[in-house]
Amino acid sequence: MSAGPNETEKPLRIALVESLPLMKRGVQTVISGQSGMEWVDAVSSTRAAVELCESVHPDVLLVTSGGDPGWNRCQLLTRLFTRLTVVALLGREARNSDSIAMARLRGVRALVPLEAHPDRLVTAITAGVVLGYYIDPDLAIHATAPDGGRSAGKKSLSRRELEVLHLVSEGRTAVQIALRLQITAETARTHVSHILRKLGARDRAHAVARGFELSLLPC
């Protein structure tokens, strides 16, 4: 007798990096009540998160902006565990275009408000895994801004510079961009420099934020 579709599909295994007991208990309750998802564990440090990923291999790791304000933990974990999907729960302090752009650069696949309804957390997890990138509608307004020279921004970047900007938004280095576009690393750096100047950006993260604001990058 053949197995049904629900029997053959493995549940998504979800873990959390958080130190607050109430937060841990709340997320565990949400995940444990979802079909197609399996609660793994909660840890409170980067070292413990690395050990958890090495030993248990969760599919999804939930993090909070308060626990990883510079998204450095996310960057480390996504580089060490390339199949891991990181979903970020954003507090009010992180709801701005720069923070959201930096989160994406550091490997976050989905973003949702910290106080969102449990159903929206589940949606963010699922979309992050299936689509590769998702931002909750309540956060999208912070990733984009009203038109302030939007069309001018589109015209100022060449097609090649737009390609480079998209790769920068994925966290690619100059060498990786060069390999993808079959150009030299120096040429890639020159394109990045031109992008920063044209968008009035102070660094790569700010350029990605500006890309969102000007609708040069998809939210």
Which characteristics define this entry?
219 residues, alpha/beta, Rossmann fold, Arc Repressor Mutant, subunit A, 2 domains, 6-stranded parallel beta sheet, 12 helices, CheY-like_superfamily, DNA-binding, Sig_transdc_resp-reg_receiver
Description:
- The protein has twelve helices and six strands.
- With 219 residues, it is of the alpha/beta class.
- The protein has two domains: 12-143, Rossmann fold; 159-214, Winged helix-like DNA-binding domain superfamily/Winged helix DNA-binding domain (Arc Repressor Mutant, subunit A, Orthogonal Bundle).
- The chain has a six-stranded parallel β-sheet, with helices on both faces.
- Helix 4 (72-80) links the parallel strand 3 and strand 4.
- The protein is globular, with a radius of gyration of 19 Å.
- 39% of the residues are buried.
- One of its GO terms (biological process) is regulation of DNA-templated transcription.
- One of its GO terms (molecular function) is DNA binding.
- This is Response regulator transcription factor.
The CATH superfamily of the largest domain is Response regulator
Looking across the biggest beta sheet, what order are the strands in? 2-1-3-4-5-6
Tally of DSSP β-strands: 6
Provide a count of the helices.
12
| Low-confidence runs of at least 5 consecutive residues | 1-7, 145-152
Q: How many domain units? A: 2
Structural class: alpha/beta
Q: In whole angstroms, how far apart are the ends? A: 44 Å
- Give the CATH level 1 class of the largest domain: Alpha Beta
What is the CATH topology descriptor of the largest domain? Rossmann fold
CATH architecture of the largest domain: 3-Layer(aba) Sandwich
Average residue-wise pLDDT: 87
Share of helical residues: 40-55%
Largest sheet descriptor = 6 strands, parallel
Query: What form results from the Cα inertia axes?
Result: globular
- Report strand %: 5-15%
What is the N-to-C order of secondary-structure elements (H for helix, E for strand)? Answer: HEHEHEHEHEHEHHHHHH
Gyration radius over CA: 19 Å
Oligomer: single chain
GO molecular function: DNA binding
Protein name: Response regulator transcription factor
Pfam families: GerE
Keywords: DNA-binding
